[in-house]
Recover the amino acids of this structure.
């Protein structure tokens, strides 16, 4: 193989070397070209005879120890300080390259890891608070990553638990209040009784004497009164059939008709299919009593009380209606407000008694409505959304 190189090309290659020193192109031991200005190439120069300072490093290169160019060599003489300076520059270059490529990503990873750890620790602290019944939510952040989703789910779960506990707490309070009101209503009823057993026995004696004297109407009324006393004494029995409740209502209305004479008429209507169903005891009688005393008693004539029980799409519907004096609007508003606020017993004890006991037994499955127009009458309407078989 033959390679022709122009002398100017060799000069350009040699002068591109940046190290401080000299390059020599040798054939054998004879200098053919050098960057050392002290060497006179016009005369035959011997490389071995050229002066070398103590701090000079001599570098020769064939190619991996094999002389590919026969008898040709390139030899460099460089100052040791220049060579070491290049090494130092290379070391600094590596360091400068490592800072942005190693240190900066490391700092970013550390920052990101600390951020994740801090967010997880915050969730853990709030979980411990929930364990101690402190239902605090975590301040919302805009992060939509997995931890952000975990935070959102934790907040949703915490609010739901807090709501459930509140509902259970309120329900428990309402149950206790209804039980207290029930006990109060029983106490009021007991306070209104004057030795009921004595009265019951006395009435039975009077009834028997009336029958012996053939005073059948008087005996019938006394019998109705005795039945009312007997039923009112059985407080341990909370539920009765609709048939028994209507029987009690009929006894009461029979007595009231005896009092008012022709001024009062009454009708009791019930579907045969509902007579065996159970309702809380004394659910209708207090409403009938209210209708007769506050509605019919003020009339001169033509009073009518209508009691009806049946099934509709709404559920079991019980209605007590009269055409009596009615309730003034302000008084009706006051009664409804007192029922909503669950105020203590005062006036309208019978209405409140019925309402509170219905709420105690049926909770939110019962509706209680009162409508009235002054001079036209009053209607009580109870709607029960569940059936209880007797």
């Amino acid at each position: 193989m033959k390679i022709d190189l122009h002398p100017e090309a060799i000069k350009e290659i040699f002068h591109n070397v940046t190290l401080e020193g000299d390059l020599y192109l040798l054939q054998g031991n004879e200098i053919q070209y050098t960057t050392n200005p002290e060497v006179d190439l016009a005369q035959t120069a011997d490389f071995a005879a050229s002066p070398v300072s103590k701090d000079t490093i001599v570098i020769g290169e064939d190619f991996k120890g094999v002389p590919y160019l026969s008898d040709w060599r390139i030899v460099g003489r460089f100052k040791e300080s220049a060579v070491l300076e290049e090494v130092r520059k290379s070391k600094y270059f590596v360091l400068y390259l490592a800072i942005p490529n190693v240190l900066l990503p490391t700092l970013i990873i550390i920052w990101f890891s600390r951020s994740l750890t801090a967010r997880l620790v915050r969730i853990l602290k709030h979980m411990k608070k929930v364990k101690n019944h402190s239902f605090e939510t975590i301040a919302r952040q805009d992060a939509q990553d997995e931890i952000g989703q975990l935070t959102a789910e934790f907040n949703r779960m915490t609010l739901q638990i807090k709501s459930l506990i509140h509902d259970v707490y309120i329900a428990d309070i309402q149950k206790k209040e209804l039980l207290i009101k029930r006990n109060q209503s029983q106490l009021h009823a007991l306070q209104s009784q004057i030795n009921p057993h004595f009265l019951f026995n006395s009435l039975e004696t009077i009834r028997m004497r009336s029958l012996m004297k053939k005073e059948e109407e008087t005996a019938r009324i006394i019998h109705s009164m005795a039945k009312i006393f007997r039923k009112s004494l059985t407080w341990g029995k909370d539920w009765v059939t609709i048939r028994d409740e209507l029987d009690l209502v009929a006894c009461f209305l029979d007595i009231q008709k005896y009092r008012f004479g022709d001024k009062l008429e009454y009708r009791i209507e019930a579907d045969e299919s509902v007579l065996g169903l159970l309702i809380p005891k004394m659910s209708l009688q207090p409403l009938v009593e209210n209708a007769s005393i506050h509605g019919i008693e003020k009339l001169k004539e033509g009073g009518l009380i209508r009691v009806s029980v049946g099934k509709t799409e709404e559920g079991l519907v019980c209605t007590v209606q009269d055409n009596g004096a009615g309730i003034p609007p302000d008084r009706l508003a006051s009664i409804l407000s007192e029922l909503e606020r669950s105020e203590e017993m005062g006036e309208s004890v019978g209405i409140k008694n019925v309402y509170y006991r219905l709420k105690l037994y049926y909770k939110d499955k019962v509706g209680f409505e009162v409508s009235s127009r002054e001079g036209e009458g009053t209607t009580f309407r109870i709607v029960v959304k569940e059936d209880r078989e007797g």
About this structure: Residues 55-59 have pLDDT under 50 and may be disordered.
